[in-house]
Design a protein that fits this description.
This protein folds into 2 domains: 145 residues, 3-Layer(aba) Sandwich (Rossmann fold), CATH 3.40.50.620; 77 residues, Alpha-Beta Plaits. The longest helix is centred in the middle third of the chain and has 20 residues. By secondary structure, it is α/β, with parallel strands linked by helices. The chain is globular and about 55 Å long. A 4-stranded parallel sheet has the order 3-2-1-4, sandwiched between helices. The C terminus is likely disordered.
Length: 249
């Protein structure tokens, strides 16, 4: 890390980019640019979290707002390569900022564990020459999680709202907002994680199993909001949240 003078980091406020930002700070790199790209399908809580972490660590934070991304056909139709085109556009925007700010590198928080998964966005990183220091150092997802827990650093474990919709379903900004509002309602109960996945005119709620009782406590509110949004049924997935098991620790 000490070899960088003014790196720009693709910063989401999530686990990996938060750890990377902290590591640069510990290495004495004092001209870091944390760059967050705000697409319409990014939850507002993600943007707020990135602002909070950047403020806590005292780094220069730049937010790029881009609504034109919805003109990308593969993204607007939620196609199988949406992550590739999203990452390609996101990192291209960050590269533009890096050039304008006189940065000497653009970094992202990809870790070794990510390489074992099917992530089309990784191809975009390679094409654009983005460096992934956690991969270069051989650091895994579990190690990042453990280190952040020991450091007591806050982060937000989130994904974009496109993951709540079935592949191939045309993206509606109105629907994305409904999903976000419903998730925000549920998060206010204190659940650690929630996904409201749309299936036709129904919505399936996923939360970690220990938090399921909280859903029942606001059952009427959820049903009322979902009905006002046009959903005909709401189900609770008894299998629980299907993301990384690390989140449930």
């Amino acid at each position: 890390m000490k070899g960088y003078r003014c790196p720009a980091i693709a910063f989401s406020g999530g686990r990996d980019s938060t750890f990377l930002l902290w590591a640069l700070e510990q290495a004495g790199v004092d001209k870091v640019k944390a760059v967050t790209v705000d697409f319409p399908y990014i939850p507002r809580r993600v943007i707020a979290a990135s602002e909070g972490v950047a403020r806590l660590l005292g780094v220069d934070h730049i937010i790029i707002r881009d609504k034109e991304v919805m003109k990308e056909d593969e993204i607007s139709r939620n196609g199988p390569l949406r992550c590739y085109f999203c990452k390609l556009r996101m990192m291209s925007l960050i590269l533009d900022v890096a050039e304008r700010e006189g940065c000497d590198a653009v970094l992202d928080g990809t870790n070794v564990s990510d390489l074992r998964e099917d992530r089309p966005g990784l191809r975009a990183l390679k094409e654009l020459g983005i460096r992934s220091p956690l991969v270069e150092a051989g650091i895994t997802e579990g190690e990042v999680f453990s280190l952040l827990r020991d450091l007591d650093l806050p982060y937000l474990a989130e994904t974009c709202l496109l993951t709540r919709m079935p592949p191939g379903r045309k993206v509606s900004l109105d629907l994305l907002k409904k999903i976000e509002n419903l998730e925000d309602l549920i998060l206010r109960t204190g659940v650690s994680m929630v996904r409201a996945r749309v299936q036709g005119s129904e919505v399936r709620i996923e939360v970690p199993p220990p938090d399921m009782y909280r859903i029942l406590e606001i059952r009427d509110e959820i049903l009322e909001m979902a009905s006002s949004m046009g959903f005909h049924a709401v189900t609770l997935d008894l299998a629980g949240y299907r993301g990384s098991k690390l989140v449930l620790v």
